[in-house]
Amino acid sequence: MGRLRTFALCVATFLVAGLVAAVTFLPGVQGWRVLAPAAPAQAAAAAARPAAEIVGAQPALPIPVFASLPPPEALTARSGVLVDVDSGRVLWARDPDRPRPMASLTKIFTAMEAVSAVSDLDRSLTVPSAARSQIPWDSTVMGLTPGETVTVRQLLYGMFLPSGNDAAVTLAQAILPEPQFIAGMNALAASLGLRQTHFTNPWGADDAGHHASASDLAVAAAYLDAHFPTLAAIAGTQAIDIPATASHKAYHLRTLNKLLAGYPGVSGLKTGWTGAAGGCLISTAARDGHHLVAVLLGSDNTFAETRALLDYGFSLEQPVSQR
User: How far is CA 197 from the centre of its chain?
Assistant: First the structure.
């Protein structure tokens, strides 16, 4: 829990300072350390990895106690966290550092790695046969046909909105060799100090070596939201129609994230489910300049339980310095 509170301070620190931040715990140091700036704000360009230059360390901020609603403890989620990004406070957490299967929450890393590996989101990629053969028959899909040519941008919409496993496989195989692409996802996680995160595939298949913690995913969500604005905008899109061309059929993509239309202020970020992972959801939300990140893993009702978390978070009285 102490680790998570100190992470939240780092989120607030790099947002206020305008730095790209990552965090890593150093033995013997009481607190987290903010690392020096990495990528430029335009995340569509190849993003550099954060440099390991220590620029400061401070203790965690206390958890606020003023709220008009009680903390939502009656949740089925096995793990989760709610972070106030503005104040750097952890508002609620349950087993936040335990590594768990994360299902399609994986795809936020797939997206960041893809955008970091290409300079043009309108670059065309050919859909490989593995986009159909490598994924289970009951996968969520964009609906790609092997041999079609689609752009990176279109694949990102197909991966975020309907959570297309076929889009994730295409990005991972058509930009770089898949092992190299997945190595890049793991390198990104390591550069952010995410010690409980490891990937073996680009779309979230259950695997013993494929896991993350709720606190790690909160770090990643804040990083994406702050430094990959194009991805954040795509993740917040409720629907998009892609007309047919000579190289591909038409696509009518609709989001699986019910909170985008059903909860005021929600802007993203990613849904997920597998048999081993259960229901998973990362949510970003803002009201009146108040920004929250919520992560739930292993939930029986991700949308209702995230609503309860966000209701609680927005009910908290903010410190005078933030008003």
Answer: 12
Beta strand residue intervals within the chain, DSSP E: 23-25, 32-35, 54-58, 79-84, 89-94, 124-126, 149-151, 239-242, 251-254, 266-274, 278-287, 290-299
User: How far is the C-alpha of 243 from the C-alpha of 303, rounded, in Å?
Assistant: 31
Q: Read off the pLDDT of residues 285-315 as tens digits, 9 standing for 90 and up.
A: 999 888 999 999 999 999 999 999 999 999 9
Q: How far apart are CA 222 and CA 284, in angstroms?
A: 8
From the list 32, 37, 5, the residue with the least C-alpha distance to 21 is 37
Tokens 């009481």 locate to 30
Strand, helix or coil at 259? helix
Q: 163 — alpha (psi -120 to 50), left (phi > 0) or beta?
A: left
pLDDT tens digit string along 13-62? 433 333 233 333 222 212 222 222 233 333 333 333 232 221 222 223 33
- Farthest-apart Cα atoms in the chain, separation: 61
Q: How far is CA 150 from CA 104, 147, 189, 267, in A?
A: 21, 10, 28, 26
Among 136, 108, 131, smallest CA distance to 280 is for 108
Q: What does the radius of gyration of the chain's CA atoms come to, in whole angstroms?
A: 19
Q: In a 3-state reduction of DSSP, which class is residue 193?
A: coil
CA 138 to chain centre: 23
Structural domains of the chain ordered from first start: 67-322 (3.40.710.10)
3-state secondary structure at position 270: strand
Strand-pair category, 278-287 with 54-58? unpaired
Length of the chain in terms of residues written: 323
User: pLDDT by residue (tens digit) across 191-249?
Assistant: 999 999 999 999 999 999 999 999 999 999 999 999 999 999 999 999 999 999 999 99
pTM equals 0.81
